[in-house]
From TrEMBL, chain A:
Residues 1-79, 334-360, 396-454, 470-506, 531-552 are annotated as: Disordered. Signal peptide: none annotated. The lineage of its organism: Eukaryota, Metazoa, Chordata, Craniata, Vertebrata. Keywords: Nucleus, Phosphoprotein. Belongs to the UTP14 family. Residues 343-358, 396-410 have a biased composition (Acidic residues). This is UTP14A small subunit processome component. Residues 1-17, 470-481 have a biased composition (Polar residues). It comes from Capra hircus. GO terms for biological process: rRNA processing.
From TrEMBL, chain B:
It holds the Pfam family Sof1. This is DDB1- and CUL4-associated factor 13. SUPFAM superfamilies: WD40 repeat-like. PROSITE patterns: WD_REPEATS_1, WD_REPEATS_2, WD_REPEATS_REGION. PANTHER family: DDB1- AND CUL4-ASSOCIATED FACTOR 13, U3 SMALL NUCLEOLAR RNA U3 SNORNA ASSOCIATED PROTEIN. Pathway: Protein modification; protein ubiquitination. The gene is DCAF13. The keyword Transmembrane does not apply. It is found in: Nucleus, Nucleolus. Residues 354-440 form the Sof1-like protein domain. One of its GO terms (biological process) is oocyte growth.
Length: 770, 445
């Protein structure tokens, strides 16, 4: 026991010492605490201080508390300020072993184990939390109105008041009970009813009906119902599927579908053939008939809208051309007699494909030449066309009218244009001459065949220039000789392609004649190149009204002309001939580059054409009032006489001169009418996304003049209808099918305080957890 | 030989009575009726012009008050009855069909600050400057009886507004706080407060009836939940809101009439951006009321005019004014959505048509069809410049007109300044603030 105590006291002492060491130096010490100290100097100092503090002033000062502290010791010495708290364990340690204090210790331990209660939140904070929770709750309640509001906003028509007064239907029993038969007739009827045990009141079923109802057992009914249900479900499923499939727009899908169907049909047919040959035969006949019908129809001729549009597009678009070809092939296939369909058809098709790649460019022509059908023939042809042009150029001053007609009939009028065009012509002629020279050199012509390799071109440029200068003379000579040789040719040549193309389509007498003529040539000539293919297409269209061969020839040349201007590779080589000598190398290069870059598009010409068209369009049109068959014979193919036409033609007065009349490189659009513009909408109004949409709404008439009565009423339906004299109440939950809350607001409010407190607690707890 | 005769059934062409209409067979072939667009355009133009010709919205002026009309209330059960409270404490009940005052009560000393009717239409409540809430019977006193309120509640502070619950015997007053009262008690069942400023008006939500909205003079709008006895949210605007009105068809939409000449339509679930800012007034907006259809609302302004706004448009569709009408303090849209009443400073209550050119009375079916057609045509061609110009043209008093011009210049200047500021500062540092966001100072949770 003693030893124990001694140890404890020791411990305490050391503890105290620790504390003392931490104390600030000027801290007043009590004597009792001094005992364990062995630091003499410090003790002495303290002693001195305490003695000095015994003086009057200082004593009072000692009693004062200068620092804020929670505890005030009764000895005017506070334990505070050390920064160290008295911890429970410190107190417990000395009593560890004593058993008598176990209970106290336990209690103290329990106290220690309990956590401290946190400070309650600030009132403002609590209120804020409440508000937030309440807001979330009420906005949740409100969001149930979203669909209703949306529906009402988008509704075509809203009729107010929304809640209709419910027409009360009294149940039939009530009516019957309250009603008595008075007249003899009624009594008689009632008698009859009673005789048949017709129930007047509740079940409303006669015993017979009841029996019939009972006749079918429950299970049977159930089964039947299930069956019906299944059938209905299946039906709706198939319907939905069919609808879905019908709506698919993918071409690929349909193609695959079609192919699959065809395959299936073939398979079926084969199977049928094995099983039942007679039926198969019948089927075959049917198929044949279908084919014939198809053949008879105009569907596969090239007269359809699509085919026409493609024919126009074919010039510029590879795909369109291909599509057209395909279509032609199909047509041919269908119009073929069936028995010939075995080998020759395929051959022909192959031939056709070779025959009409329909590429207008020289480039391709050259390529084909490289393919090696008959290079000489092709070259011949090219030179041919060009020569004809050159010849024309030479003749130009002599016969300008011919040239003009060849260019196109529209060009006649404008003088400025002519000068411009002349310039063009000159250049072109130069170009072609050089080209000709080129042709004379087989090596170089080979090289030019590759249109894409521009580098090679530029390399060759210098070389070819030299050659050109060298061969200038000789080329001219050749040219003249060639001209003499081939003078007779062109007329024949143009007709040849036609002959190849349309042996079966000769219908008019004219064409028949041509056919006869061509046949002799056909033997000589081989299939043509691409250029010719196109020419022939164009030519055919040009031909129909024009019997004169000369004119045709000119047109031919013109086409050729167009083609040459469009071929970039040839041009790039051919451009510099005469001017080059005068210019520097750099300048020339620059020009060349520009020209190469814009080789394909003839901007000035396009512009002139556009302007001409604009002028044509703006010109007031003459009014022809001639009535065919009035005062003379009429009928198919008869036209009113020229005299008559002249008489009834009302000449439109000359409009005001165009503003851009004297401005050669400007087009001023005079279409805008300021008077009409005042009535036109300038900006696309809000809900519309495209002007076409807006135009469509404007263009659909609403009036009863254009619509049936029913449609008119539907179109002019007002958006909001109110009935005069009816009070419109605010919308209610019951109006739109929602269940309104059964609790009244008042009762909730009156019950609120209790609920509030509970809720508050809960929320607080939640908050603490958070 | 058989002779074939042309025969027709007389039923097809003979009228049964002479009052029947002739059957007119029509050919709808479009080639027979060309130029449909120009024809309809002209019709639309004419319809628009006629609309302006017949636009005479002013119906009647009810005079009898001896001071400015401060508040109006309509009877929820009767279209013809209107109540009005004046600045001298007088309450008058009017019969609109006769256009006469049928009863006068000296209800309060000082202003009648607010008036509202019970949902059943049997009694009404008034609050005044004398710190009292009084309940009155709608029917006048019997012979020999004295004009007395059913109940009187003496309060501690001045009440500035009152509104009745839409279904139950509860009403709410506002002053220093929002009080919810049971009709049977003399103490409020709960009072809710948030901040210490005086609240100028309180309104019950007509659909979700436990919700209330109020606006206080410290520029805020506060929403309350009556069931949970707590405020919900507060939005602070640039300037003071004078009153709010809930949309009777859309539970979460309300419109606030603000001192800064604008009206703000809010979705109460998202208060940080108003759904629409309605601009056109040139002075403080004092009152607003929704049409019972919930498609439009009418606003009364200090600039001596009334304007009608579609809910989804920021510009007004109509402006009403007369030479004699002074600052309009209160306005109400009648329960059949055909008329508008306005009470103004110069002691008169005016009755207007909600649609200025509408023909009153019973329409024949043909008239109705014609008006529908014209309406449709106007709608169809509304974007065309001529029609737009004519249909938008209004005569305005000089004061309003010049104010509009002036404010336009000011607005333009402000805009230019903002643009300049954006242009001359570091890109991205100054942002353009949209008109909707501009006026919202803060949303307090």
């Amino acid at each position: 026991m003693n030893a124990n105590q001694a140890a404890e006291s020791n411990l305490l002492a050391s503890n105290q010492q620790k504390e003392l060491e931490d104390l600030p130096k000027d801290y007043p010490l009590s004597t009792s605490e001094d005992e364990g100290d062995n630091d003499g100097e410090r003790k002495h100092q303290k002693l001195l201080e305490s003695i000095s503090s015994l003086n009057g002033k200082d004593r009072q000062k000692l009693a004062d508390r200068s620092e804020a502290s929670l505890k005030v010791s009764e000895f005017s010495v506070s334990s505070e300020g050390s920064g160290e708290k008295l911890v429970l364990s410190d107190l417990l340690e000395p009593v560890k072993t004593s058993s008598s204090l176990a209970a106290v210790k336990k209690q103290l331990n329990r106290v220690k184990s309990k956590k401290t209660v946190e400070l309650p939140l600030h009132r403002e904070e609590i209120e804020r939390i409440h508000r937030e929770v309440a807001f979330n709750k009420s906005s949740q309640i409100l969001s149930k109105w979203d669909p209703v509001v949306l529906k009402n906003r988008q509704a075509e028509q809203l009729v107010f008041p929304l809640s209709k007064p419910q027409s009360a239907f009294a149940p039939i029993e009530h009516v019957v009970n309250g009603w008595k038969a008075r007249t003899p007739l009624e009594q008689e009827i009632f008698n009859l009813l009673h005789k048949n045990k017709q129930p007047v009141t509740d079940p409303l079923l006669t015993p017979m009906e009841k029996a019939s109802l009972k006749a079918m057992s429950l299970e049977e009914v159930k089964m039947r119902r299930a069956e019906l249900q299944r059938a209905r479900a299946l039906q709706s499923y198939y319907e939905a599927r069919a609808r879905r499939e019908k709506r698919i727009k993918s071409k690929k899908y349909h193609r695959i579908l079609k192919k699959g169907k065809a395959k299936q049909a073939l398979k079926d047919f084969e199977k049928l053939q094995k099983v039942n040959p007679a039926a198969a035969l019948e089927e075959l006949e049917k198929l044949d008939k279908a084919r014939m019908m198809e053949r008879m129809s105009l569907k596969h001729q090239n007269s359809g809208k699509w085919a026409k549009s493609k024919a126009i597009m074919a010039k510029y678009d590879m795909e369109a051309r291909q599509a057209m070809q395909e279509q032609l092939a199909r047509n041919k296939e269908l119009t073929q007699k069936v028995r010939a369909a075995s080998e020759s058809e395929e051959e022909e098709e192959g031939q056709e494909e070779e025959e009409e790649p329909l590429v207008p460019d020289m480039v391709n022509g050259v390529q084909i030449k490289a393919n090696g059908l008959n290079p000489w023939m092709v070259q011949n042809h090219f030179t041919d066309a060009k020569e004809a042009e050159i010849q024309k150029d030479l003749e130009d001053p002599a016969e300008p009218e011919a040239q003009e007609t060849s260019e196109s009939e529209e060009e006649r009028a404008v003088v400025e244009e002519e000068t411009l065009l002349k310039e063009f012509e000159e250049r072109r002629s130069l170009r072609q001459k050089s080209e000709l020279n080129h042709m004379a050199e087989p090596v170089h012509s080979r090289v030019t065949k590759d249109p894409s390799s521009q580098e090679v071109l530029s390399e060759l440029r210098a070389l070819c220039q030299k050659l050109i200068t060298e061969n200038h003379q000789s080329g001219k000579q050749e040219l003249s000789s060639a001209r003499t040789a081939q003078r007779e040719e062109p007329a024949r040549e143009e007709e040849e392609p036609m002959l190849l193309q349309r042996p079966k389509r000769a219908r008019t007498l004219d064409e028949l004649e041509e056919l006869g003529r061509e046949e002799c040539v056909e033997n000589k000539e081989l299939p043509r190149t691409a250029v010719e293919g196109l020419q022939l297409e164009k030519n055919r269209s040009n031909h129909i009204g024009a019997p004169k061969e000369k004119k045709r020839k000119e047109q031919m040349i013109d086409l050729q002309n167009l083609l040459t201007t469009k071929s970039p590779s040839v041009k790039s080589l051919a451009v510099p001939t005469t001017v080059q000598e005068l210019e520097d190398e750099e300048e020339r290069d620059q020009r060349q580059i520009i020209k190469e870059a814009f080789a394909g598009d003839d901007v000035i010409r396009d512009f002139l054409k556009e302007k001409r068209e604009a002028m044509e369009a703006s010109k007031p049109k003459d009014l022809d009032l001639t009535l065919p068959g009035w005062g003379e014979w009429g009928g198919m193919g008869l036209k009113p006489s020229a005299k008559k036409r002249r008489r009834f033609l009302i000449k439109a007065p000359e409009g005001p001169p165009r503003k851009d009349k004297n401005l050669p490189n400007v087009i001023i659009n005079e279409k805008r009418n300021p008077h009409a513009a005042a009535h036109q909408v300038q900006v696309l109004p809000h809900p519309f996304t495209h002007h076409r949409q807006f135009e469509r709404t404007i263009q659909t008439p609403v009036g009863s003049t254009w619509n049936t009565q029913r449609a008119f009423q539907k179109l002019t339906m007002p958006k909001v209808v109110t009935k005069p004299g009816h009070i419109i109440k605010p919308i209610k939950a019951e109006d739109v099918g929602y269940r309104s809350s059964s609790r009244s607001d008042l009762s909730v409010v009156q019950r609120n305080p209790k609920r509030l407190s509970i809720r508050h607690k809960k929320h607080l707890e939640n908050n603490c957890v958070d | 030989m058989k002779v074939k005769m042309l025969s027709r059934n007389p039923d097809h062409y003979v009228r049964e009575t002479k009052l029947d209409l002739h059957r007119v067979p029509r050919n709808y072939d479009p080639t027979l009726h060309p130029f449909e667009v120009p024809r309809e355009y002209i019709r639309a133009l004419n319809a628009t012009k006629l609309e302006r010709v017949f636009a005479k919205p002013f119906l009647a002026s009810l005079d009898g008050h001896r001071d400015g009309v401060n508040c109006l209330a309509k009877n929820p059960k009767s279209l013809a009855t209107v109540l009005s409270g004046a600045c001298d404490g007088e309450v008058k009940i009017w019969n609109l069909t006769k256009r006469k005052c049928i009863r006068t009560i000296q209800a309060h000393e000082g202003f009648v600050r607010g008036i509202c009717t019970r949902f059943c239409g049997t009694s009404f409540f008034t609050v005044g400057d004398d710190k009292t809430v009084k309940q009155w019977k709608m029917d006048g006193p019997g012979c020999g009886e004295e004009e007395e309120p059913l109940h009187t509640i003496l309060g501690k502070t001045v009440y500035t507004g009152i509104d009745h619950h839409w279904r139950e015997a509860v009403f709410a007053t506002c002053g220093q706080q929002v009080d919810i009262w049971d009709e049977q008690r003399t103490n409020p069942i709960c009072s809710m407060t948030w901040g210490f400023d005086s609240i100028s008006s309180v309104k019950f939500n007509p659909i979700e009836t436990f919700l209330l909205g109020s606006c206080a003079s410290d520029r805020n709008i506060v929403l309350y939940d009556m069931r949970q006895a707590t405020p919900l949210k507060k939005v602070i605007l640039d300037m003071r809101t004078n009153t709010i009105c809930w949309n009777p068809m859309e539970a979460f939409i309300f419109t606030a009439a603000n001192e800064d000449y604008n009206l703000y339509t809010f979705d109460m679930r998202a208060l940080d951006t108003p759904v629409m800012v309605h601009m056109d007034h040139v002075s403080a907006v004092l009152d607003v009321d929704y049409s019972p259809t919930g498609r439009e609302f009418v606003s009364a302004s200090f600039d001596k005019s009334i304007r009608i706004f579609p809910v989804d448009k920021s510009r007004s569709r109509e402006v009403y004014h007369t030479k004699r009408m002074q600052h309009v303090i209160c306005v109400k849209w009648t329960a059949d959505s055909k008329y508008i009443m306005s009470g103004s400073d110069e002691m008169n209550i005016r009755l207007w048509k909600a649609n200025a050119s509408e023909k009153l009375g019973v329409l024949t079916s043909r008239e109705k069809a014609a008006t529908d057609y014209n309406q449709k045509l106007k709608e169809k061609f509304q974007h065309h410049p001529h029609i737009k110009r004519i249909s938008r043209h209004r005569h305005l008093p000089k004061s309003i007109y010049s104010q509009i011009q002036e404010q336009r210049i000011m607005k333009e200047a402000r805009r230019r300044k903002e643009l300049n500021r954006i242009k001359h500062s570091k890109p991205g540092s100054v942002q353009m603030v949209s008109e909707k966001k501009k006026h919202i100072v803060a949303v307090v949770k």
